[in-house]
Amino acid sequence: MAGDPAVSGNIFRLDNRGFTLIELIVAISVISLLFMLAIPRVGRMIGSQREKFAIVTGMLATAFDDAFMKDRPNFFVVYLSAPEVDDTVLQKDVVDRKNGVAVLNYVDGEFVDNRRKALQFRDFNDSFLIEDVLYANGEKVTDGRAYITYYPGGYSSNCIIHVLVNGDQHWSIKIDKHIKEPKVIRGYETFEAAL
Fold first, then answer.
1. Alpha carbons 59 and 38: distance in angstroms, whole number
2. For 31-53, what is the mean pLDDT?
3. Confidence of residue 38 (pLDDT cuts 50, 70, 90)
4. Whole-angstrom Cα distance, residue 134 to residue 141?
5. What is the per-residue pLDDT for 94?
6. pLDDT-based confidence at 75, cuts 50/70/90?
7. What is the enclosing helix (H) or strand (E) of 146?
8. What one-character-per-residue DSSP string does 23-86 give?
9. Contact 146, 120 (CB under 8 A)
10. What one-character DSSP code corresponds to residue 118?
11. Maximum distance among all alpha carbons in the chain?
12. How far apart are the first and last CA of the chain?
């Protein structure tokens, strides 16, 4: 076949072994467009979770400072995602909350919200579930609420708060009784693992 470039030895042969420059440019453009659409969503999701951890750790550090500076105990309350089993609780306004954190003070025989805005109740959506709180003595609170007391002398209790992020990521917020800043650790920590 004289007209076939591959047979005639023509330097402009048909070669089906690769992509043309146009095809590569189109493919790279489509992939770039997909990344431009996906990256901001992933960034917002990651930023949202970081913000929630920052709220919890910031409130813990502020509760530590507030107790020391005002010479009074602060009760950091972790409202777990599972509801309270006992529905005869008094003071429903400050204890009947779910999946959030707050700092309470004990005034005239009852718990009241701390006056500082930075220490008032913050709730979280289902992508940030507070599952349980472990105390160093082995006690584990899985429903209702858990109290972490910050004393005026500048200390609290050793405990670990377990959080489930996006339904499949396990995280721990570890509180050391003499350290102001808690640690955020990927995975579920226990006190036995720390030994």
1. 32
2. 69
3. low
4. 7
5. 72
6. very high
7. strand 145-150
8. HHHHHHHHHHHHHHHHHHHHHHHHHHHHHHHHHHHHHHHHHHHHHHHHTS-EEEEEE-SSPPS-
9. no
10. G
11. 105
12. 82
**Distance from C-alpha of 194 to C-alpha of 172, rounded to nearest angstrom:** 12
Question: Residue 192: in which H helix or E strand, if any?
Answer: helix 191-194
Residue 14 lies in a domain: no
Q: What mean pLDDT value characterizes the chain?
A: 83
Q: Per-residue pLDDT averaged across 94-100, rounded?
A: 82
Find the angle CA(165)-CA(170)-CA(176) to the nearest 5 degrees.
110
Q: What is the pLDDT of residue 195?
A: 44
Is residue 11 pLDDT above 60, yes or no? no
State the total domains in the chain. Answer: 1
| 147 inside domain | yes
12 located within any domain: no
Q: What is the CATH number of the domain that holds 83?
A: 3.55.40.10
Domain membership flag for residue 149: yes
